[in-house]
Design goal:
single chain, alpha/beta, Aspartate Aminotransferase, domain 2, seven-stranded mixed β-sheet, four-stranded antiparallel β-sheet, 11 strands, binds pyridoxal-5'-phosphate, PyrdxlP-dep_de-COase, lyase, L-2,4-diaminobutyrate decarboxylase, Pyridoxal-P_BS, pyridoxal phosphate binding
């Protein structure tokens, strides 16, 4: 093939980098903008005032042809981006399980981008690799997991759960899944794994799907009144499945569950997994870090026996997005699951200048230097700082529970185990009615409208969920900025909204008004 001529170069070579003066000037302006943002974060409207159509229009523009001055981009950030942010860093943001973002993460992201190391391979990121290795050991130590474990940072809990399930498969099934995958003739049985019915997280379903095990490969184990996995039922299901010719390979325990923050009985699950030769995976995406609190030790007993643990620093360690993490008890099992080689990955003769290559331990090849934000925040706050913040969050959840219990118009549905709390509005005058379908439907609607209404005001961000069949108001309190006062204000507003909406009634449900 003949070489295509390039158009004549009419300008001298230029990297298009800013010069030092320009860089400083824009850099200071960016820092000023961020500092100003932080000083107003508590008082901001949490969701944008604009609707989704308007926000889409704001960003509708043609591919830039000739460039624009750097400073004008900061202006665009202020004028176009900031007004359409959902402020996860607000102390009254309680949606999903979203962390609040540490200030050290901001600096770490900038510093990491400045050197642009690729943490996929040691040669392209020696300090990044060693900092990540150190952070993995520190996190293990924090939660009482063996510090000689393997592990790495990943995009989030979903990717960590996916990597854990692949590792479980590779290391438990009696045939080689690396070469032939599931297409081997030696696979005679259908593979199944177990998690609890009520609180099992949807990311495990996604992971099973991505592994092509099929979503039905997940057996939902009944849970008790406390919404923790019933381990007798688990044992019975495993035996039953074996008799029916299935091949169980893994049990997933929730360590801090999504609606009510419970921890499954880890000690029992560990014992069953050992007896049955199954992989014990602990999905602690939101809750595993609670194990750093000595007063919660009984809850977490058995976590140290898990074959793998998922834990999201971007949730309850407040690190900025993205930052998920997987720990695997035996590093070699993780390597065996992901290792691959090619001449371009080797790239040099063996020398002393060579350490661990993270591409051998996870699904990604190129990887960011996410460890820096964990490293800097952990060093800034220390174990004690983190313990204080986690306790504050738990205290907020317990306080909210007390407010709910003390009010005749609210109904608690569980005690808060950690920082997630779900409850519902149930006006006192409606309690006199006998339980009936229309009442339940009305309460579902009412609670949904309350969550929507408070979020629409911009004062707080609250979503609904479903617990024991009821629509509930659910708060995930994992902001390092939330105070008891925030909780009291939010509760008072919810109460007020509940009264208002109930007084308005719902068309078709009028008969339910007192
Ligand atoms: C959030 C969460 C996940 C998924 O994590 P992402 O970081 O959102 O991918 C998995 N399991 C549990 C229990 C979670 O709370």
């Amino acid at each position: 093939m003949s070489e295509q001529p390039l158009p004549p170069n009419t300008v001298p070579f230029d990297s298009l980098d800013l010069d030092a003066e320009q860089f400083r000037s824009m850099g200071y302006a960016v820092v000023d903008a961020i500092a100003a943002y932080y000083s107003t974060i508590r008082d901001r409207r949490i969701i944008s005032e604009s609707g989704s159509r308007h926000i889409a229009e704001v960003f509708e523009e043609k591919l830039p042809q000739s460039g624009q001055p750097a400073e004008s981009l900061l202006q665009e950030w202020q004028e176009r981006v900031l007004p359409h942010v959902t402020h996860l860093g607000s102390p009254r943001y309680f949606g999903f399980v979203n962390g609040s973002g540490t200030m050290m993460s901001v600096f770490a992201e900038a510093l990491a981008a400045s050197v642009n190391m690729n943490a996929g391979g040691w040669k392209a990121g020696p300090a990044a690799t060693e900092i990540e290795r150190r952070c993995i050991a520190w996190i293990a130590e924090l939660i009482g997991y063996p510090t000689d474990c393997g592990g790495l940072f990943l995009g989030g809990g979903t990717l960590a759960n996916f990597s854990a399930l692949l590792t479980a498969l590779r290391n438990t099934v009696p045939f080689d899944t690396t070469r032939e995958g599931l297409q081997t003739d030696r696979r005679r049985q259908k593979l199944v794994l177990y998690m609890s019915d009520h609180e099992g997280h949807i990311s495990i379903v996604k992971a099973a799907d991505m592994l092509n095990l099929g979503r039905e490969a997940i057996r939902r184990v009944p849970s008790g009144d406390d919404l923790r996995m019933d381990t007798r039922a688990l044992e019975a299901m495993i035996h039953d499945d074996r008799q029916q010719g299935y091949l169980p390979f893994c049990v997933v325990a929730q360590v801090g569950s999504i609606n009510v923050g419970v921890v499954d009985p880890l000690e029992d699950i560990a014992r069953i997994c050992r007896q049955e030769g199954l992989w014990f995976h602990a999905d602690g995406a939101c809750g595993a870090v609670g194990a750093m609190l000595p007063e919660l030790a009984p809850l977490y007993r058995g976590l140290e026996k898990a074959d793998s643990v998922t834990l999201d620093p971007h949730k309850w360690l407040y690190i900025s997005y993205e930052c998920g993490c997987l720990l695997v008890r035996e590093p070699e099992r993780l390597r065996r699951s992901f290792s691959i080689s090619a001449p371009y990955l080797q790239g040099s003769l063996p020398t002393d200048y060579k350490g661990l290559d993270y591409f051998e331990y996870g699904p990604q090849m190129s990887r960011g230097f996410d460890a820096l934000k964990v490293w800097m925040t952990l060093k800034h706050w220390g174990r004690e700082g983190y313990q204080q913040l986690l306790r504050q969050n738990i205290q907020c959840a317990r306080h909210l529970h007390q407010l709910v219990e003390a009010s005749p118009d609210f109904e608690p549905l569980h005690r808060p185990a950690l920082f997630i709390y779900s409850f519902r509005y149930f006006p006192a005058e409606l309690r006199r009615q006998a339980p009936q379908q229309p009442l339940e439907e009305y309460l579902d609607q009412l609670n949904q409208r309350m969550a929507d209404a408070i979020t629409a005001t911009g004062f707080a961000f609250i979503l609904s969920s479903k617990v024991k069949g009821h629509i509930v108001i659910r708060l995930s309190i994992c902001s390092h900025r939330t105070t008891l006062e925030d909780i009291e204000q939010v509760f008072a507003r919810l109460h007020h909204l509940g009264r208002e909406l109930h007084a308005e009634g719902e068309p078709g449900s009028r008969h339910l008004q007192s």
